[in-house]
Amino acid sequence: MTVREDRAEKGKRELVCIGCPLGCMITVTCKDGQILTVSGNTCKKGDQYARNEVTNPERMVTTTVRLADRPHETVSVKSERSIPKEKIFDFVKALKMVEVKAPVHISDVILSDVAGTGVAAVATVNRL
Amino acid sequence: MLSYDIVIVGGGPAGLAAAASAREQGIESVLILERDHTLGGILNQCIHNGFGLHTFKEELTGPEYAARFIDRVNELGIEYKLNTMVMDISSEKCITAMNREEGLFQIRAKAVILAMGCRERPRGALNIPGYRPAGIFSAGTAQRLVNMEGYLPGREVVILGSGDIGLIMARRMTLEGAKVKLVAELMPYSGGLKRNIVQCLDDFGIPLKLSHTVIDIDGKERVKGVTVAQVDEHRKPIPGTEEYISCDTLLLSVGLIPENELSRGMGVDMEPVTSGPVVNESLETNVEGVFACGNVLHVHDLVDYVSEEAAAAGKNAARYIREGAKRAEQAGCVELAAEGGVRYTVPKYIHTDRMEEKLTVRFRVGDVYKGCYICTYFDDTCVKRQKRPVMAPGEMEEIKLQKQKLEEYPDLKKITIRIEKGGE
Amino acid sequence: MYDVVIIGAGVTGCAIARELSRYQVKACVLEKCEDVCCGTSKANSAIAHAGFDALPGTKKALFNIRGSEMMEAVSKELDFPFVKNGSLVVCRKEKDLPKLQELYDRGIQNGVKDMRIIGREEVHEMEPNLADGVLAALYAPTAGIVCPFGMTIAYAENAAVNGIEFRFDTEVNAVRKEEEGYVIHTTRGEFRTRAIVNAAGVYADAIHNMVSGEKLHITPRRGDYCLLDHTAGEHVARTVFPLPGEYGKGVLVAPTVHGNLILGPTAVDVENKEETCVRQEELDYLLDKVGHSVKNIPIRQVITSFAGLRAHEDSDDFVLGEAKDARNFFDAAGIESPGLTSAPAIGVWMAEQIQESLQLPVNPEFIPNRKGILNPAELPMEKRNELIRQKPEYGTIICRCEMISEGEIMDAIHRPVGARSLDGVKRRTRAGMGRCQSGFCSPRTMEILERELGLPMEELTKSGGESKIIVGINKDRW
């Protein structure tokens, strides 16, 4: 049992939704690992976020990789979709040795299945 | 001399959106002047995601958001000059610019859109005591070094100020291998978005100390540590609360200042609260045909609002080009007053006949308000009360004014926006 | 074997080096920092004093007057910024009026020209932002403002062009007397020389005491300053002093030659000769005091605060000339205010002393003139465009606050005694000195330094030593 589940079982969690800049305060009540109520959200996304956050929190990851022959330029990348929160550092570390050659275009896959997440790192910038 | 209908100073999010909008309104002769080597402005170094939810209904990173607008500008065939610094703009809208290919040159513009963005407040403005060693960076400088060049400016970091760039950089530096020991915020509330506190600090166990500041910087050559202390309600350090934190880097995220040197030079009136130009409903300054949008006008929290505002400025500038000479002389106009917790409004004046059917008025509040109302008064009459669960200085607020509604009050002199508590 | 080794590359050491280069001499300047102008010379009021402060008969009085008289011509010869803007010592109390008269009388004795005591109406007309309570002032039109970096660098460059060597990052550990002269032990090896000039600022007592039995004692007297943005630069036109107090000339308000406004200094005696940290209580005191002589100072326009150390010798005067018990060991010690003003005169006088002692022949190839870094902003449009056609880097602005081009930064790096750090570039070109305090331009200036010096980014410093800017690359510790 992870710490998070442990907390979820204690009954009540207060969350700040990160779905959009509004930052709604959401309260989730749980019993025996089951979510009973979600309140405080202003939209459906908030409800979904809160449910995920107490069971399987996920995050988008953004970082950089090196660009061959251009010491002053990086290629910014992101996880194609959100990954489990506890995998954030593994995701970043797996990109340590990655160096790409120009041209690079937005959405180009830089590394697939990063750190066993099944999620690719894709370029978020054009380097021509 | 070169001559254009509309010259846009700055090729960041505001300049790009303004240019696209002006062109879509049918103005062919549009030129963007950009000082950097690419379009996109500061978005290029904001590689985190969270941009574009309003504009594109999806979350993009900064460079991706910029690329959408750059693509649009290219599709529309809008001219731009890169690596070009605008040195001066005269009140007659003659622009002096410089780049390495053309040298110093002048451009005559019928309309100018100011979209220069903002800069960070430096340490000097804070007058922090202590030494002046290497290792003190504004958060944006660190952001450029880490995100665009791949260099780490520090291993052990203390961040002063909880503005969004500071929060974002806490996460970025953590991910790249630095240890962020603390974020200290002078005010009793954060200057950044709540979600950034969650995903940039809480996720990584980085402490945020509100009502704290840095009172000393140690280290003659490179930062060795900082002393942090709690502050009282007058923001003065409380003796006995000092704590020394060893670190090699101090990042400052203590606010942004619109970059209006060019605007001042051409005689544009400034609003002291925003440090941006005073504008009317068309986002036009007191200098006829000179418009302002984006962070040069007032510092925004979200780029989506910058794009929206800039599109309006582009449209209004286009209209000025089409109708400028024919515009009715203004007898009078309605003034907007910011009171009761509202720090300022953009715009500041409204010519009712020139406004669109709906006009967005943007502002910021001076404190954290919970369960309060944004109240709109037409002279002494309260015409609207809108409840907001939470308002904070770090987040921009807006209301919409209906032209139709204003026309119902022909003698209207002043619109007041104020925050009022519930139940009143 | 050198004829002369000058210890210290501040304004005094550099002025002496330049004046010495008028003679045929093998000479070298040793500096513990990475550049010239790194100590007291870089953090002071930047004032060329008229000369009424020092007591008649003191060396301070003598060299102040001489230096003040030389400044305009030297600034033209060596092309550094100097403006004769005049100064006012303001008086706010009836009972203090005699003190103003006393200063005037002292000035007359010292030989200050054209001074006047002026009344309330005239002084407020001259300076509309003076505090309302100002009753009268001593007006000295011969006072000026100078760029201390520009002046020190100008002297150093001209000295270097005329054959004087400069060794940086070279700290003197010990000096040993030998038959022929001296051996100087440094962090970068030994230097043998016939004569030594001690221009080591706050460390001049330590250097002196290595060879002389007649001990000197220098107290570092720290002064905190605030610098305001160009928007505040015209708040006063003249340098405004209060009546002098126990610790010197008091807190002044002055424009700078680059259009900023400077406030300061405070005065606190400290023990540590490196204690250039700004203190909150000093800043508070400073901002309170300036309001007594000038009103409505736009404090929000402060772009930086900094502190400098004055080298205050116990005798309260400059210590100049050959040490009594150490032949060919020349002191230029205790050089505190009016040291900057006096530097041209000290340089000339000291070079003469050394020449007499060592019997140096005149240098027939001496080049008296130096041209500063080209400032394209001062050129008319056509000339500027011609320049950009020849060297396109002059068309690329790097520092957007001060509008400094890549060409100027490259020039600063490649000149004699060129810049090797961000601060070195800043002091030579002003890139990074503006309102954003190098936030935008420092990464770009670093790229230029990397390219022009062939140093990796990780080796570049803010100001030499351990002041590295970059500590690694992304993910290097993962």
UniProtKB/TrEMBL annotation, chain A:
Pfam families for the chain: DUF1667
InterPro entries assigned to the protein according to its UniProt record, in alphabetical order: CPE0013-like_sf (IPR036593), DUF1667 (IPR012460)
Protein name: DUF1667 domain-containing protein
TrEMBL record, chain B:
GO molecular function terms attached to this record: oxidoreductase activity
Lineage: superkingdom: Bacteria
Keyword Cell membrane: no
Gene3D superfamilies assigned to the protein according to its UniProt record, in alphabetical order: FAD/NAD(P)-binding domain
InterPro entries in the record: FAD/NAD-bd_sf, FAD/NAD-binding_dom, Metab_Enz_Cyan_OpOx_G3PDH
Keywords from the UniProt entry: Oxidoreductase
Domain FAD/NAD(P)-binding residues, every copy: 4-304
Record protein name field: NAD(P)/FAD-dependent oxidoreductase
Organism encoding this protein: Diplocloster agilis
TrEMBL record, chain C:
Gene3D superfamilies: BFD-like [2Fe-2S]-binding domain, D-Amino Acid Oxidase, subunit A, domain 2, FAD/NAD(P)-binding domain
Ranges where the FAD dependent oxidoreductase domain occurs: 3-352
InterPro entries: BFD-like_2Fe2S-bd_dom (IPR007419), BFD-like_2Fe2S-bd_dom_sf (IPR041854), FAD-dep_OxRdtase (IPR006076), FAD/NAD-bd_sf (IPR036188), G3P_Oxidase/Oxidoreductase (IPR052745)
CDD domains: GlpA-like_Fer2_BFD-like
Stored PANTHER family: GLYCEROL 3-PHOSPHATE OXIDASE, GLYCEROL-3-PHOSPHATE DEHYDROGENASE
Protein name: NAD(P)/FAD-dependent oxidoreductase
Organism, as annotated: Diplocloster agilis
SUPFAM superfamilies cross-referenced by the UniProt entry: FAD/NAD(P)-binding domain
Boundaries of every BFD-like [2Fe-2S]-binding domain copy: 397-450
